[in-house]
Hints:
With 554 residues, this protein is α/β, with parallel strands linked by helices.
Amino acid sequence: MRNVLGSPPWHPHLSAPIGYGRTHMTTSDSTGGGLNIFLSHAKVDAPTVREVYNRLHSTGFNPWMDEHNLQPGAEWREEIVLQIGKSEVAILFLSNASVRKRSFIREEMEFIISKAESIKLRGTTFLIPALLDDFKIPERLARRLARWQVVKLYESDGYDKLLGALQTRNNDFGITRDNIDIAPKKSVAKESLVNIAPEDSSPIPTDQNNTDIIVFIPGFFGTELSYRNPAKGFRRERVWSADGSTLVTTLVQHPKRLECTTELEVGEVLSAVYFGREHSFVLYQQLFDMIESLGYERGRDFQTFGYDWRLSIKTNAQRLANFLKKVAHGRPVKIIAHSMGGLIARYMLADHKSRDDHSNVRLIIQIATPVLGTSRAYYVLKESAQLGDLCEWMKKCMTQREKGSFDLLKNAMNHFESIMELLPHDDNKILKTKGGQFYSALYPGAWPDIGEAQLKSIQDVQSTVRRAGIPAISTIYSEDIETDHVYEVDNEFKTIIRKFSSEGDGVALGISTNHGSVSTHPLRARATHYVLPSHQRVLDIVRNYILPEIRKAI
């Protein structure tokens, strides 16, 4: 074990932590009365951080470390966010190994940085970046941490410098080693650490150095959703989040929460999804990193629009128009949209009622957007909830018992307005009966429980999406993977007997994703629907669309 704490050497007496990335157990409040210090680290650095924990604790501080303060059985992710909010100081431990991890530690870093940025009192120390190795911090992270002086714990006097900074912070609170038990505790509501798509009209600050603003809209499943439980004082309970197991919990314990009649709170756009102790699925992290590497700042001239993916494309398009009015301040807007996010943007552009709110939109970059719908939506409604590669990955990560929840997910998705709107349009006859007749996916005989007015409403949404047009809609898509196209069904349209495939990305056909664009960029690679936003070729294409505005600013 390396010793980064200088002389004299110190040896921990606790066993190594369990878990992955983070040690996942739930909280036991720290018993000390001193300065509350949150220790943020990756699993690979746990032995070293354990040394710091024990020395701080023995000095009279009140450090919080997952392996010491989490108990089995509680919701570890929510408790970690809660503890960040309670802390007066957060030490962000960084090593050459940990900064390249794509686990929950990335999200934890964002919570800490967000809180540090929200503290307005000049001279108040909250965030202390602590380097465990002599290495170069990756450019994007270095830029995010540029405001705060790092401490190099690998140097002989590193720990003494850390201790001095913490003692100064103690004194800010009127704490000395003689009266360390009477320190007042500050807290920040954990809800303030999450980027919730706002409904109010207060302006969001932008960086006037750039000439444009980037807005990213995720695809289906790309936004966190939560339920405010009135039986528990309106406590926020996640229905879908970066921790994929929350969906299983919702389906098993509260399946009705997913129905569109239940109001859910929109949370952050997810950069990745984690499942169990070992598995992660990167959604948009590389795309976000690339945009920020060009000088855009998240929350200022780079905005993400989260939305309730259960609801109608029309509803979310109206909310997008309000969001753009709030963040753009008359500046040119470039929209980058994945999957259903592109349909929402297209509907907004075609809707004359919101024209004044989006008149400054100059470009939409669609990534795998099924403009003409997707046959897979019919499969989801009739057979299984496996909408694409993200769902297939989640199912593989589940235990045998948890996989039964996918049947419950199918039942829930039958209540989603959005899934019906994702069905292929009327002129694409995807249903073939045993007698050889072809029908559209919205043929009334396939939906005996849905009225004619509702089917007409769905068709109106599809028609509006299809006719959207501005000077530039550019499409990035894949058509190198076998993708469901036509289904042979029984005469009652209840059972899919056989599938017929064409070229696409595993969810949407190429003929659907490349429709109605000024320029198209077919990806000559076997990239699936949810992997596309992270593909290097996609990142290069998006960068080339953004760069001209960067050059103007320079």
